[in-house]
Structure formats: structure tokens, C-alpha cells
Amino acid sequence: MNADPEVSVIKMYAAREEIYPREIQGRYATLRWVCVWLTQLVFYGLPWFTWNDRQAVLFDLAARKFYILGIVLWPQDFIYLAALLIICAYLLFLATAVAGRVWCGFACPQTVYTEIFMWIERKIEGSRSARMRLDRQPASAAKFAKKSAKHLAWGAVALWTGITFVGYFTPIRTLMIEIATLGLGPWEWFWVLFYSFATYGNAGWMREQVCKYMCPYARFQSSMFDNDTLIITYDEARGEPRGARNKNTAGKALGDCIDCSMCVQVCPTGIDIRKGLQYECIGCAACIDACNSVMDKVGFPRGLIRYATDNAMKNGWSLSQMRRRALRPRVLIYTAILGLIVAAFAITLTLREPLKFDVIRDRGSMGREVEDGMIENVYRLQVMNTAESAQQYRIEVSGVDTIRLATADLVSLQSTESRAIPIRVRVDHGKGKPGSNRIQVTLTSVADPSVSVTEKAVFIVPR
Fold first, then answer.
1. Number of structural domains the chain divides into
2. 278-294 burial by CB neighbour count: b if 16+ within 10 A, else e?
3. pLDDT tens, position by position, 420-447
């Protein structure tokens, strides 16, 4: 049967074309590698750093304690983690409003690991042209050896990344011993392999696909842009009409762009910045380094592709004029909100008491009469010492005449220990009104009386 000539097939997803980014040297390439080194030194090194004889940063889910340098956070302190996330979000909004996708281009984990994986690829398979030739070659022992070496190196980096990630939740030294003895638990194995596979797949195979199709930031970034946001721009007025320089173009009026396509060859997402700002642009500035190097060779001024704003390009503003527009209402609002959140976070964290406790009355034992006619209630104190040193606390009760403890008034807790402490509270016969009476239970540090917390409770007097 012949196909209907009027029927056409529309593909909803374009097949991926392999991108072979060219290596480039320049100011922004150096800055990008500085960010790679800084972020990875922090990520890989922080689990090995100790603080007060324990891992400096550890999210101990089993013990429900988060250690961040000298701070110990408990489930009740979740508000601080939420505040940290809000601060990071506003920092991203502020950076985007001022300098576009600078986070994506220099510090995003996807960018960082893609840069590392591409460096490994270049070291094993060669330059851009060598990689393209290798991929076109038929299968051979030499090709198999190079591809295998590259993927083994990628796998090693990805596996170490997965181990380090789990090392933030299981003490890294314990984790390494468990790996060496094959004693990892099932969940630890799962997360090591899952994070390793994610790193290997995202940075090794998907690369720009993550930025173009999977990352939501690429989709809503424009809502934070305005005409004074720094973006990577092509100076069309200076560059057009573009064209190569040869004897046939002598005497023709051409712009400074020699149409060498170097800006396209170095782009990790494969776009042509000369077509204007595109959501695929991650702001890595590789095209700026490439264009500047070409301008140096042909003797033209640098800056044909550069960081600028829409208003600067339209009005021909200088760098100082762009800087004056940096402090515009949107930026000031983001900065003010961020400053308030940071200040509130710092103040509440500084004033946080290193002691938490709850009073729970034993509902199975109502107010009862004991020797000498006294009335007794039983309570359980759930005490948490959030400090990283052993503490001794004094227990005091008040609120009803003659109220006192019938148990020891001193309790000792080790560093970051949480413990349930039963106490018995009594009042003399005839004191307090029948029914419920409001009382207060106070815990005070023996070493530092300024550390004191009071909680309310109810004392029952039988009717």
C-alpha cells in the first residue's frame, strides 16, 4: 500500500545531536575552574574535617541530630534548616537579578561535574577534532580501549562522589571501614550507587540535556531578569554584517565578526549566542573567552561578545553607567529581604538556649495521696542537652504553696544527650484547689545559671 502523500509525521522531541565543546583558555575559563576546585574541596573535604572530636558536618538521621560545625540541630530546630534554604533561595534570586545565570555557569553541580568529566574526556580521547574522528571510526581495539578508559575514570569519580554524599549521613570513617569489609547496610548501598549513577549519567551522558529540559531554573529564570540584568550578549551593531576575511571581501563593509563559529564550538549547550539570549544559555562565558581570543588574533578590540545589559547595549552605556543601574528597586528589595532573614537567623541562633525539655504528666497515675496526707503527681521530663559538653541541671517546681520535689533535684546529661527523667512532685494536704492547678517546672544549668528554661504543667489535687 502506498503511503498517503498528505500525511506527515511530526516529531515531538528532536533527536539529540552530539555536542563536542572545544577547550578554551581565558579569564572566565580560569574562574570556572577556580569554582570547580573550591566547590569540590568543600564537598569532598568537609566530611573528613573534625570538630569537637566528631565529624564537623554530619546529618545523623538515626540519632535525629544534625551537626554543622559547632551547632547541633534537633528535629525541633527544623526552622533553622528551613531558614537556611530560604537564605540560599534569596541569594540565588539576588544573583540572578544582578548577573543572570552566573550560578549555572560557574557553581552549579551539573556544570561543575560536567566540566570535570569533559576534562577527563579530553585527556583520554584528545581534542575536539580527535573526539569527533574517534566517534566516526568503526569499532576497533584502540577505540574500545579509549572509551573503556574514559568510562572507568568517569565511574571512579562518580563512585567517590556517591561515597562522599553518603558520608554526610553516615560518619565517613565508619563508612569507609564498612565498604572495605563489605558491611554496608542496604540503604547505604542504595544511596551510594544511586548518587554515583546520577553523577555518571548527568555529567557523562546527559550533560546539556539536564540544563535544557530537566532543570526548572532554566524555565523561570526570565521572571527574575529585567533590562538591567547582566547577560552574555553579542554586539550586533558592531559585529554585523559578519563574514570571513579573505581577498574576495576586500573593500566590502563588514562587521568585526569573522564568522569563525568559535563561540558555537566552545558552547557546552551548543547554541549560537549571536542569535540573541536563549534559555539554553547557562552563562558560562566560554563564548566570551573564545571571541576575545579571536579578536586578539585579528587585531580587533575585545568585547564583541561580553557581559552587558539590554539597556547598555541599546543606549551604548559604559561600565560605570551599568554599575549605577545595579542598585535598582528589584535588587534593593531582594537585598533588604535577604538582610532581614539573615539577621533574624543569626540573632535567633545566637540566643538559642542549649537546653530543651518537655513536661509530660503521667496520665496513668492521677493525683494520689501518699504518706502524711500529702498529694503526689508523677511527671516525665524529656530533657535534651544540645550543648557539646556534659551538663548538670537543677530541677525546681513552683506555682502551688508547699510544692516540692520528692525525687533528686539534680540531673546530669552527657553532650548532646536526650533522656527521659521521671520526677515526683508533692504538696501538703489542703494546699492547692481541688482539680487542676497550674505549676511551673524549671531546669537551670549548675555551671551557668543564665541557661534556664521553664515549662508549664498541671498538678492534680483529688476532689
1. 2
2. ebebbbbbbbbbbbbeb
3. 999 999 998 888 888 889 999 999 999 8
Q: Which of 220, 161, 217, 222 is nearest to 192 (CA)?
A: 161
Q: How many helices, marked H, and strands, marked E, lie in the chain?
A: 16, 16
**pLDDT score, position 243:** 86
- 1 located within any domain: no
pTM above 0.90, yes or no: no
Which residues contact residue 153 at a Cβ distance below 8 angstroms, ignoring those fewer than 6 apart? 120, 124
Q: Which residues of the chain carry a pLDDT beneath 70? A: 1-6, 8, 10-15, 247-252
* 197 falls within a domain: yes
**Angle formed at CA 405 by CA 404 and CA 407, multiple of 5 degrees:** 160
Out of 315, 334, 352, a domain closes at: 352
Q: What does the alpha-carbon distance between residue 65 and residue 58 come to, in Å, rounded to a whole number?
A: 8
Cα–chain-centroid distance for residue 354? 27
Q: Note whether 168 and 247 are same-domain residues.
A: yes
Any idea which residue has 542496604 for its cell?
A: 186
> Based on the domain organization, do 241 and 368 belong to the same domain?
no
Q: Which of 352, 387, 408 is the last residue of a domain?
A: 352
Q: Within 13 Å, how many C-alpha atoms sit on residue 134's CB side?
A: 20
In 3D, which of 52, 199, 220, 178 has the Cα closest to residue 117?
199
Do the beta carbons of residue 417 and residue 440 sit within 8 Å?
A: no
Residues 368, 375 contacting (CB under 8 angstroms):
yes
